[in-house]
Specification:
The structure holds two protein chains of two kinds.
Chain A lengths: L9 E5 H15 L3 E5 L15 H5 L4 E3 L4 H13 L3 E5 L10 H8 L2 H4 L9 E6 L14 H5 L5 E3 L4 H13 L4 E6 L6 E5 L12 E4 L4 E5 L4 H13 L4 E5 L2 E3 L3 H11 L2 E8 L4 H13 L8 E5 L17 H12 L2
Parallel strand pairs in A: 2-3, 2-4, 4-5, 5-7, 6-7, 10-11, 10-13, 13-14
Antiparallel strand pairs in A: 1-8, 6-12, 9-11
Chain B lengths: L16 H4 L15 E2 L23 H26 L13 H8 L7 E3 L5 H6 L4 H4 L1 H4 L8 H4 L11 H21 L10 E6 L6 H12 L4 E7 L2 E2 L2 E2 H4 L7 H5 L2 E6 L3 H16 L5 E6 L18 H8 L3 H11 L5 H24 L6 H6 L6 H15 L15 H9 L1
Parallel strand pairs in B: 1-7, 2-3, 3-4, 4-8, 7-8
Antiparallel strand pairs in B: 5-6
Helix pairs in contact in B: 2-3, 2-14, 2-15, 3-12, 8-9, 17-18
The chains are: A alpha/beta, B alpha/beta.
Chain lengths: 334, 419
């Protein structure tokens, strides 16, 4: 079996490879872990995230399933009841919805419905977000639909390092986790320290750039954009702190509160539509917690209240550097 | 503009059993080549069946009496629970009347290593699985989310989203197979053979998840028995709206065997389910069983069958009552006399009285229990909102308690009020 070479503890690699290495380690460490999904075996998944795993761990642990998302999640729930830790791949964000019933009425609620008797440690990996120039249903950001459902945890890493250890942490979580993967960042490279302890709590936010005049919070695919926004704002004399939220349920409000109490301003950016999005919840809670520190209302920037548009129009739909910078300026205008 | 009155002739609804009964106007129904397996006729006389008869050769008078006793107790419990709902003691009750043989016969076929997934009307199955009757009612009382522990009873909780439990059963069965594979690869001894028995109904058979379950079960040779109780009515919609063909014939389309059984014949149900569970355990699954039965009562206590089905249909099925049939078998074949039935009634009366007291004894837990179970691991949002809940509850003055607001945390009280 292709074991990890621990003598080489740090490597520079893509998020795609980091996810692959993270799942490889989870499969190695725990025989109860298994992967399920469409095309994840011989093909390695349409994004090749599971490439090579079927060959190394066997078809009984890396299962090419029949084509049915409700069947994938529903049987994963059953396997979890038998003591397994299934990791399901949904091929694209927009194809999660055939499994929506199983995720929201069964997976999310099973622990509560059984009064705590039936834990369902299932991880559902969903390549998420847009700007990949694709066809309909391939570019969506469904996180708010899941965040509204008690019983689920939701994370979205933005770096190869986080992807590597967070996937392992989520697989060992006793709760079900929606693991959103920022598909347009799959080929983003970064340092991955394979020996870094993976005991860190994955359900926390991280300050990824310090600043003292405005807190810009975002997650997944927009984190690199937010870093560029902070750089551009700095050239304009504005000091922007960037927080990578990482965990979308629960949300690490303590980190956000501490940041806003220092900066006095907040912008929330996400690809998902603004209306009813996670930005609304963050704005409400931060307004409650930081009312006397705020210099301006929390500003939100995100998708419009439209179905995700055809690829030729998407660059005007998803917030980019300029639109986020515009929101930053709105916050400073008060 | 005045609306045009509807002058079109009234069309016969081909799915309205009340309108079409006896008219031959049902949609074309493909008569199945599958015979309905029956070991007792409607008068409780034995029928020959060379394939399935041997599966109940061991059944003696004690076994039949025991089957009858379970069916009788389930019916009496069902009647009491319907009454309790009318008295406002139970929030809702789905009666099982008429389906006792399908449930008791099938539940008797599974063993200690097998796992059962019920739908929500399988009260006789739950009793067979050893759950005390009064405990079983906490969910329908609205006092608990579920009434028994799957980890102890090897019986999953009730599922009210129709068909949602069927893929779980398949996944569980895939896990049984995976256990054997992992043991084999590790050079360990094989775990005991086991199968999964999952219940659903004719209405749920239409759900897409049930279809996907069949596909997955076939793909992975899952040791699962799909047990569909076709009670002819999905609330108000007759079976002819769900399917043109007997449901068991669908199994062939997935590549496994389906068997139709007279669901009001406890011996036939026991025989067919024993066979099916053995097939599944020994790696020849999955298997589908369609038990043809009839819901003699309402869908739930919120339902009114007089609005959608004819009394002659109910009367026809009442003559096929599984209890009457089993009683006739006991009378004719085993010469069981009236004393047995009189004693059983007395014993059941006492049990019902005791059970009723047990049901009425309990109350709901505090809402705070729900904060404990929503996640398995600690969750900051839940803990924050649990505190809101506590603060709000504590903001009320209780009798005899000295809870002056001055002595409490004013800020948190305000926060709670806002929450």
């Amino acid at each position: 079996m292709n074991q990890l070479d621990d003598s080489e503890s740090t490597l520079r690699t893509t998020m795609a490879k980091a996810l692959n290495l993270g799942m490889r380690r989870a499969l190695t460490d725990d025989p109860k872990v298994l992967l399920m999904g469409e095309d994840i075996g011989s093909l390695g998944g349409v994004y090749r995230i599971t490439e090579g795993l079927k060959g190394d761990f066997g078809a009984h642990r890396v299962r090419d399933t029949p084509l049915g998302e409700a069947g994938i999640v529903g049987t994963a729930v059953g396997m979890a009841m038998r003591g397994y830790r299934p990791v399901c791949e949904i091929q694209f964000d927009g194809f999660t919805f055939p499994a929506f019933n199983q995720i929201t009425t069964q997976l999310a609620k099973m622990h509560a419905r059984s009064d705590g008797d039936v834990p369902v440690p299932v991880t559902i990996r969903i390549p998420s977000g847009g700007v990949i120039g694709s066809v309909e249903h391939h570019s969506e950001s469904p996180e708010a639909l899941f965040a509204h459902t008690a019983g689920l945890r939701i994370v979205m890493p933005s770096t190869p390092q986080d992807a590597y250890w967070m996937i392992q942490q989520c697989i060992s979580s006793p709760d079900p986790v929606i693991f959103l993967e920022p598909k347009r960042r799959y080929w983003l490279k970064g340092e991955v320290d394979l020996l870094r302890p993976t005991t860190e709590d994955p359900f926390t936010a991280q300050v990824v750039r310090e600043g003292d005049q405005l807190t810009l919070v975002t997650w997944g695919p927009l984190v690199p954009v937010a870093m560029a926004v902070a750089e551009a704002a700095a050239q304009d004399g504005k000091s922007v702190e960037v927080v990578d939220l990482r965990s979308l349920s629960p949300i690490d409000f303590d980190t956000l509160e501490a940041s806003v109490n220092r900066t006095g301003r907040m912008v929330v950016a996400h690809e998902a539509p603004v209306f009813g999005g996670l930005g609304a919840e963050i704005a409400a809670r931060i307004t409650d917690r930081c009312f006397y520190s705020l210099e301006a209302p929390v500003q939100r920037v995100g998708g419009y209240h439209l179905p995700y548009p055809p690829a030729g129009m998407e660059e005007n739909y998803v917030p980019d550097l300029d639109r986020i910078l515009d929101a930053v300026e709105r916050a400073f205008a008060y | 503009m005045t609306p045009t009155p509807n002058t079109s002739p009234q069309l016969l609804d081909p799915h309205d059993a009340r309108a079409t009964a006896g008219t031959g106007a049902h949609p074309a129904t493909v008569e199945s080549a599958l015979d309905v397996v029956r070991l007792l006729d409607e008068n409780g006389q034995r029928c020959e069946n060379s394939r399935f008869g041997p599966w109940v050769e061991d059944v003696d008078v004690q076994t039949v009496q025991s089957l009858y006793r379970s069916m009788f107790r389930a019916r009496r419990l069902d009647e009491m629970c319907t009454a309790l709902q009318r008295q406002g003691q139970i929030v809702l009750w789905p009666p099982l009347r008429g389906q006792e043989a399908a449930q008791v016969g099938s539940a008797r076929a599974v063993g200690e290593h097998d796992y059962v997934f019920p739908s929500y009307r399988e009260h006789a199955v739950i009793l067979e699985r050893g759950v005390p009757a009064d405990q079983m009612m906490t969910q329908f009382r609205g006092h608990a989310a579920s009434s028994w522990k799957p980890s102890e009873t090897k019986t999953h909780i009730y599922s009210l989203v129709l068909g949602s439990q069927v893929p779980h059963a398949v996944g569980y069965a895939m896990g049984i197979t995976q256990d054997a594979t992992l043991a084999q690869l590790a050079g360990e001894s094989q775990p005991p053979e086991a199968a999964v028995l999952v219940y659903y109904g004719d209405g749920a058979s239409t759900e897409g998840e049930v279809h996907e379950s069949m596909v997955f079960a076939a793909s992975y040779d899952a040791p699962v028995v799909f047990f569909v109780q076709n009670n002819q009515w999905a609330i108000s919609v007759p079976f002819s709206t769900q399917s043109r063909v007997p449901l068991a014939t669908r199994a062939a389309g997935y590549g496994f065997e389906g068997v139709r059984v007279d669901g009001n014949d406890p011996l036939a149900v026991l025989a067919v389910t024993r066979w099916a569970v053995a097939e599944a355990r020994e790696g020849r699954g999955p298997v589908m069983i369609e038990a043809e039965t009839f819901r003699l009562g309402a869908h739930t206590t919120a339902d009114d069958p007089t609005k959608y089905r004819r009394t002659d249909e109910e009367q026809r099925w009442a003559t096929r009552d599984p209890l009457l049939r089993t009683k006739a078998l006991l009378n004719h074949e085993y010469g069981v006399d009236q004393d047995y039935f009189t004693d059983l009634e007395a014993e059941t009366d006492a049990w019902i009285k005791e059970t009723r007291a047990g049901i009425l004894d309990g109350g709901p837990q505090d809402l705070e229990q729900r904060f404990d179970v929503v996640y398995a691991a600690q969750h900051p949002l839940v803990e924050e909102e649990r505190q809101w809940y506590r603060d709000y509850q504590d903001s009320f003055l209780t009798d005899g308690a000295d809870q002056s607001l001055a002595g409490s945390d004013d800020h948190s009280v305000t926060e709670a009020g806002r929450a």
